[in-house]
Specification:
Layout (H helix, E strand, L loop, with lengths): L1 H7 L21 H13 L9 H21 L7 E4 L2 H13 L7 E5 L8 H4 L7 E5 L10 H7 L4 E7 L11 H10 L3 E5 L11 H4 L3 E5 L9 E5 L1 H4 L25 H9 L1
Parallel strand pairs: 2-3, 2-4, 4-5, 5-6
Antiparallel strand pairs: 1-7, 6-7
Length: 268
């Protein structure tokens, strides 16, 4: 009976087919679908207004950031950036850094990461950024700190690696890798897409600069989040409207809680 109840909470399982594609994305929970529908019915309006629907939308928007902040053990809701997928959020991050890094600066990626945490960084080679590859040990299929040490220099800006490999299933010692990268003055971007469905993320324990994962891997909608340390986010230019300067809004094109007031000020 309990098993039947659990299955009933996933509308996508109500067919004659056995779905084996959860590595690509989990089925969404019924209460999540209902919550999304309720939002579109009652608060699908512009943030920043003084009428009830807008105030409700803003309340829900801020609660989402607070809940996600607590989920990953961050310090500030402004450190939580939302977007349509992990791939897009990493691309947003890489695009911001491409505007402040200089030719000859270095990025380290692995040969066992998902494309989401490799492709956008590799493309910065077109701007003169040096991209290095941290390779797994072919005997143990593990990333080793000694190999990372060989790649790190005083020009290394970012080390991008996975918390859990979606191909090999290995769990990496994120905190140790982060400490090593930080000792060389580099930041880390941790892909947690394959990690989040199975274990809690603690960004403080990891001391990670950026952590990304997708909700559609954790029974949610096709959406994603990125954690970023506030002091780093504040230094990035952003990619929203020119008049939006605070995080997370400068990294989330679209609705903005101060947009109504800023628009009236700009055009009146």
């Amino acid at each position: 009976m309990r098993f039947d109840y659990i299955r009933s909470q996933f509308p996508g399982l109500g067919t004659d087919w056995v779905l084996l594609d959860n590595a690509g994305g989990s089925q969404i929970l019924k209460p999540v679908v209902e919550r999304i529908n309720e939002h579109f019915y009652s608060s699908n309006v512009q943030l920043g207004g003084t009428y009830p629907h807008s105030m409700l939308a803003e309340e829900r928007h801020e609660k989402a950031h607070l809940d996600l902040m607590r989920w990953v053990n961050a310090d500030d809701p402004s450190e939580i950036i939302l977007g349509s997928s992990t791939s897009l959020l990493v691309r947003t991050l890489a695009g911001n850094f491409s505007r402040i890094w200089k030719p000859g600066d270095e990025i380290i990626v692995t040969n066992c990461d998902h494309e989401a945490n490799i492709g956008a960084w590799r493309e910065l080679a077109d701007r003169g950024i040096v991209v290095k590859e941290w390779k797994i040990n072919p005997e143990t299929f593990e990333l080793e700190q000694e190999e990372l040490k060989k790649l790190l220099t005083n020009r290394t800006k970012m080390v991008a690696f996975t918390a859990a490999s979606n191909v090999l299933g290995m769990l990496n010692p994120v905190a140790e890798f982060a400490a090593l990268a930080h000792s060389a003055g580099a930041m880390v971007c941790v892909d947690s897409v394959a990690y989040a469905p199975h274990r809690l993320i603690d960004v403080k324990e990891w001391d990670a600069d950026f952590v990304v994962f997708s909700f559609y891997k954790t029974y949610g909608p096709h959406y994603a989040m990125m954690y970023g340390k506030r002091e780093i986010l504040d230094q990035l230019p952003g990619n929203n409207h020119f008049f939006i300067e605070e995080s997370p809004y400068k990294f989330q094109p679209g609705n903005y809680k101060g947009y109504v007031q800023v628009r009236l000020f700009t055009y009146c």
